[in-house]
Write a structure and sequence with these properties.
The structure holds two protein chains of two kinds. Chain A is mostly helical. Chain A has a domain of 91 residues. The longest helix of chain A has 130 residues. Chain A is rod-shaped. Chain B is mainly alpha-helical. Chain B contains seven helices and two strands. In chain B, helix 1 packs across helix 6 and helix 2 crosses helix 4. Chain B is 68% helix and 3% strand. A two-stranded antiparallel ribbon of chain B has the order 1-2. Classes of the chains: A mainly alpha, B mainly alpha.
Chain lengths: 213, 247
């Protein structure tokens, strides 16, 4: 393809520097009429498109030992193909041993460990709930116990107190009765004494009042 | 005429630097066969980059990953997700293949765009991305073909060939044709994208000052990354398709 393009412009090549290889494809902005450069690019691409099947067929035919290496083009199949295939397979084995397997195993182990720890945490949270409920139940039982004990003690205390109260009351009543008796006795004594004195007084008064006869 | 020769002479410098040599290869000879040496050299560089970066990043994996380890974990997750989506549950054994495909093509394309290969001057031809050569892309496509045949045959045995007459036997010639068009399209898609991107960038650089082609170069980076992804995804899709369970 390059040869057909360059063959149309031999004069330009002759004028160009001798270091230019005739196969270099490049668009050079020249002082030449630009109309020739653009159709050349178009014809180049169209030639590429249409020559692909023909060149593929050309490449498919076994090329003899080429005296002219320039004949090679885009579709030059040779020993490079199997060599690249072998290199790729060796690279695949090497990467598998160095990267995919070790790192993959490491990542999977890490995932499994994290998952195990997560499930453990979930289990212990259930345990914690159980323990909490137990604690609440125990508290409730303890409170009930305390209340029962308290009420029992109260009852006992009031019973005792009532007994004591009754005793004291009885004692006080006794003493009161005794005191009242005493007072009564003294009253009677006093009355008797007064009576005797009244008698004596009344005798005196009579004697004093009545003339002495 | 002097005007023309002088203008041509001044443009020579740019021409020397920016001329692209399509179809020019550096040839080595092994036995009676030839090799495109520039492809080999650049592919060795790509392989070296991949292996060295992997070795450095994956030493001593930490539970909380460092930056490099994090990047490679992300890449591995990405490849695993890609394989799982396309292949299904039995994606495990295929991760090295798909992963290497993706990484090799991605690093090749980006090395072709980013590394200054022009500094190293070859006696004939020039260094560029290894995927701009038809041999590389066809090699990768043929490996993919072999891979999906191997997948189908190892899973189903000879009843793999019943796929060709599903859903109706009328589609048999089309199914057979697919076996040829799949590797063809894979290889040409990658080859065309990479080579054309290189050509466009070089042509632009030779035409206009240095800043203008940068958007095109960025577009080239983007599309070459996408091409790596597409190649790997399609490879995985073909493998998954051939391993598909019994309906």
């Amino acid at each position: 393809m390059a040869s057909t393009v360059m063959a149309t412009k031999p004069i330009a090549l002759a004028k160009a520097s001798p270091s230019l290889s005739p196969r270099k494809i490049s668009i050079r902005a020249q002082a030449k009429p630009s109309s020739t450069s653009i159709p050349n690019l178009k014809s180049l691409t169209s030639k590429l498109l249409f020559s692909v099947p023909s060149i593929a067929m050309l490449a498919a035919t076994p090329l003899p030992a080429l005296a002219e290496m320039e004949k090679a083009g885009l579709f030059d199949f040779n020993l490079t193909l199997p060599i690249i295939a072998i290199e790729f397979l060796l690279l695949m084995v090497a990467l598998d041993k160095l990267y995919f397997s070790p790192l993959g195993a490491f990542m999977d182990a890490r995932d499994a460990k994290i998952r195990a720890e997560l499930s453990e945490v979930k289990d212990t949270s259930a345990e914690v709930k159980e323990l909490e409920e137990k604690a609440v139940a125990v508290m409730r039982a303890a409170r009930a116990e305390i209340a029962a004990a308290l009420s029992k003690m109260k009852k006992e205390m009031t019973a005792e107190l009532e007994v004591k109260l009754a005793e004291e009351q009885a004692r006080i009543e006794l003493e009161l009765a005794a005191a009242i008796d005493n007072l009564e006795k003294e009253k009677e004594e006093a009355l008797r004494v007064l009576d005797a004195q009244i008698d004596a007084l009344s005798e005196e008064i009579v004697r004093k009042v009545l003339p002495t006869t | 005429m002097d005007v023309i020769s002088s203008s041509i002479k001044t443009y020579n410098i740019w021409f020397e630097i920016s001329g692209v040599e399509v179809g020019q290869h550096l040839y080595w000879q092994i036995g009676g066969l030839q090799i495109h040496a520039q492809v080999l050299i650049t592919s060795w560089v790509v392989i070296a980059i991949l292996l060295v970066s992997v070795i450095i990043a994956v030493r001593n994996p930490q539970t909380i990953p460092t930056d490099g380890q994090n990047l490679f974990e992300y890449i591995l997750e990405f490849i695993r997700d890609l394989s799982k989506t396309q292949i299904g549950d039995e994606y495990g054994p295929w991760i090295p293949f798909i992963g290497t495909m993706f990484l090799f093509i991605f690093v090749s394309n980006w090395s072709g765009a980013l590394l200054p290969w022009k500094i190293i001057e070859l006696p004939h031809g020039e260094l560029a991305a290894p995927t701009n050569d038809i041999n590389t892309t066809v090699a990768l496509a043929l490996l993919t073909s072999v891979a999906y045949f191997y997948a189908g045959l190892s899973k189903k045995g000879l009843s793999y060939f019943e796929i060709y007459i599903k859903p109706t036997p009328i589609l048999l010639p089309i199914n057979i044709l697919e076996d040829f068009t799949k590797p063809l399209s894979l290889s040409f898609r990658l080859f065309g994208n990479i080579l054309a991107d290189e050509l466009v960038v070089v042509v632009l650089v030779s035409l206009v000052p240095l800043v203008i082609p940068i958007p095109v170069m960025l577009l080239g980076l983007f599309t070459s990354g996408i091409q790596a992804l597409i190649f790997a995804t399609l490879a995985a899709a073909y493998i998954g398709e051939s391993m598909e369970g019994h309906h």
